[in-house]
């Protein structure tokens, strides 16, 4: 009887511990995954659905298993720490066999190829159009940075995933964290257990909102340059684009939007091929002598931010790896996706710059002849408008969960009523966020400057600084000397590039803001 009583008390304590930890991790894991939409992650919404349904399937299984026990208490929402291949934190049942059985149920997970498609969407999206402009101010050093950024982002993505795992008492490597936020919180514990997660969330929100602003800017820019003879300014085109985007405030899910965005992503790859084909048709006129080894000291730091921003994908990698059928294939997937991105980006940027040389514009499609420019730009505008809801919805969800739905720690009242409907003032705040992206696009309509600022501020932080810092903090006792050297070097170089790019981009934005205010 005493043994049975101790067993019951142990199970109850274990269940309570898992619930208190999983309450936070379950909530933030979905946040981190929604941040996957920071650029062109069309498949991220689909992967998020798989993750949600898989967790719900596990929750039902745990309810059944606990319901058979006397005094069993149903788990709270988000009370799931699932695992793969029989490893990871144990559910309340407490047996590895039960965990393995649970992890095999639910919806199918994604393959390495599907995961690679998601990463490719993120790092080879629409913002590749700004890379030739980076070559304009960086020359061959800009090409080197495209390669260097690919290598570093691939490495930091791997070490970020390594921070999700730890060895248990039996010496087995198990997954103990679910998201970027969990890693950040673990690094700041025990003195500041939620500080790291808040920092990551702030950086995430800034990057998502800036991505929305960039979509509005590029829409106005492309339409203005496609129809220069119309008496409509770039600001007016941006207002028209925002009017089309205003219904985003009413979004409840992204299923329908993600389908359209997937088609637009495929169309974007076709457009890139058309641009390269046009450039190759003018290969005889390529200006090789214009590609220099020297750099524009004032504008090159902005190019660094542009290049870094085009590789941002770290924020959603933990959730993506957690949804893979075979997580052991993650490293291989990261290698071939970043090698492919490096080659394609380098060729696209170099070929486009050789074609137009010093006349290269911030958005390279503006250099195309007027006969095909309008058609290509209209497709790109459609893609930008259909891609806007993804980062917008992700930013809204993070804000709502952090400020309005975080239980007793919420700063404001819940923006949802008892029936689950969004309150009128909550809808007003969503509309205000759409209008804010418009105002930023109107007063600072400079695609390269905004992209450089975002890449230098949040891109470098999320892709370079934080992963290397977290890796050193959590796993420093097990790291080899060359890993320590790489982490420190990346942190120092990333910090210098981030500060330099941020200062120059901010100066350019302030000057542009003053110019627009005077006009």
Automatic annotation (TrEMBL):
The name under which this protein is listed is Vesicular inhibitory amino acid transporter
Chemical reaction(s) catalysed: glycine(out) + n H(+)(in) = glycine(in) + n H(+)(out); beta-alanine(out) + n H(+)(in) = beta-alanine(in) + n H(+)(out); 4-aminobutanoate(out) + n H(+)(in) = 4-aminobutanoate(in) + n H(+)(out)
**What spans are recorded as compositionally biased (Polar residues)?**
8-21
What topology in the membrane does the UniProt record assign? Multi-pass membrane protein
- Molecular function via GO: gamma-aminobutyric acid:proton antiporter activity; glycine transmembrane transporter activity; L-amino acid transmembrane transporter activity
Pfam families the record matches: Aa_trans
What stretches pass through the bilayer? 141-165, 205-224, 260-280, 300-320, 332-354, 374-399, 427-444, 450-472, 484-503
InterPro entries in alphabetical order: AA_transpt_TM
As recorded in Swiss-Prot or TrEMBL, the protein's gene is named Slc32a1_0
**What are the Amino acid transporter transmembrane domain coordinates in residue numbering?**
109-505
Q: What top-level branch of life does the organism fall under? A: Eukaryota
Q: Which PANTHER family match?
A: AMINO ACID TRANSPORTER, VESICULAR INHIBITORY AMINO ACID TRANSPORTER
Function according to Swiss-Prot or TrEMBL? Antiporter that exchanges vesicular protons for cytosolic 4-aminobutanoate or to a lesser extend glycine, thus allowing their secretion from nerve terminals. The transport is equally dependent on the chemical and electrical components of the proton gradient. May also transport beta-alanine. Acidification of GABAergic synaptic vesicles is a prerequisite for 4-aminobutanoate uptake.
Keywords (A to Z) from UniProt: Cell projection, Cytoplasmic vesicle, Membrane, Neurotransmitter transport, Synapse, Transmembrane, Transmembrane helix, Transport
Q: Which GO terms describe its biological process?
A: gamma-aminobutyric acid import; neurotransmitter transport
Compartmental location: Cytoplasmic vesicle membrane; Presynapse
Q: Which family does it belong to?
A: Belongs to the amino acid/polyamine transporter 2 family.
From the UniProt entry, list the residue stretches annotated as the region Disordered: 1-21, 66-101
One GO cellular component term noted in the UniProt record for this chain: presynapse
Q: What is its main location?
A: membrane
């Amino acid at each position: 009887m005493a043994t049975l009583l101790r067993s019951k008390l142990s199970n109850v304590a274990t269940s309570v511990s898992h619930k208190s930890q999983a309450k936070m991790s379950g909530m933030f894991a979905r946040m981190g995954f929604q941040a996957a939409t920071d650029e062109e992650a069309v498949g991220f919404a689909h992967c998020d659905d798989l993750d949600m349904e898989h967790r719900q399937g596990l929750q039902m299984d745990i309810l059944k298993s606990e319901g058979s026990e006397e005094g069993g208490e149903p788990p709270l929402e988000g009370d799931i720490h699932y695992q793969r291949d029989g490893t990871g934190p144990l559910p309340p049942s407490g047996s590895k066999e039960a965990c393995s059985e649970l992890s095999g149920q639910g919806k199918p997970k994604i393959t390495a190829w599907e995961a690679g498609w998601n990463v490719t969407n993120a790092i080879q999206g629409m913002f590749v159009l700004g890379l030739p402009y980076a070559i304009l101010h960086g020359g061959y050093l800009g090409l080197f940075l495209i390669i260097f950024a690919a290598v570093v982002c691939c490495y930091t993505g791997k070490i970020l995933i390594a921070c999700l795992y730890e060895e248990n008492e039996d010496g087995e490597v198990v997954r103990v964290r679910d998201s970027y936020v969990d890693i950040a919180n673990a690094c700041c514990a025990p003195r500041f257990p939620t500080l790291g997660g808040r920092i990551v969330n702030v950086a995430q929100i800034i990057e998502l909102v800036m991505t929305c602003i960039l979509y509005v800017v590029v829409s106005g820019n492309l339409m203005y340059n496609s129809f220069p003879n119309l008496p409509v300014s770039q600001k007016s085109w941006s207002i028209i684009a925002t009017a089309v985007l205003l219904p985003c405030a009413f979004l409840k899910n992204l299923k329908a939007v993600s389908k359209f965005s997937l088609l637009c992503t495929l169309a974007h790859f076709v457009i890139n091929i058309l641009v390269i084909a046009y450039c190759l048709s003018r290969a005889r006129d390529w200006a090789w002598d214009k590609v220099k080894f020297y750099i524009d000291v004032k504008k090159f730091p902005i190019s660094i931010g542009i290049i870094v921003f085009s590789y941002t994908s770290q924020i959603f990698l933990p959730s993506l790896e957690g949804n893979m059928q075979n997580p052991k294939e993650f490293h291989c997937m990261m290698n071939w996706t970043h090698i492919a991105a490096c080659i394609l980006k380098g060729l696209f940027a170099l070929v486009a710059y050789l074609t137009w040389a010093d006349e290269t514009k911030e958005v390279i499609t503006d250099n195309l002849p007027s006969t095909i420019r309008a058609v290509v730009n209209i497709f790109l505008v459609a893609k930008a408008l259909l891609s806007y809801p993804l980062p917008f919805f992700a930013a809204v969800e993070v804000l709502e969960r952090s400020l309005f739905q975080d239980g007793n720690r919420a700063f404001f009242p819940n923006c949802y009523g008892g029936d689950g409907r969004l309150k009128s003032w909550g809808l007003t705040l969503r509309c205000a966020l759409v209008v804010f992206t418009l105002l930023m696009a109107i007063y600072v309509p400079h695609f390269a400057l905004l992209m450089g600022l975002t890449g230098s501020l949040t891109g470098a932080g999320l892709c370079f600084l934080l992963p290397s810092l977290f890796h050193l903090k959590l796993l420093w006792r097990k790291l080899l000397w060359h890993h320590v050297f790489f982490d420190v070097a990346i942190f120092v170089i990333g910090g210098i590039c981030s500060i330099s790019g941020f200062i120059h981009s901010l100066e350019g934005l302030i000057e542009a803001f003053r110019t627009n205010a005077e006009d």
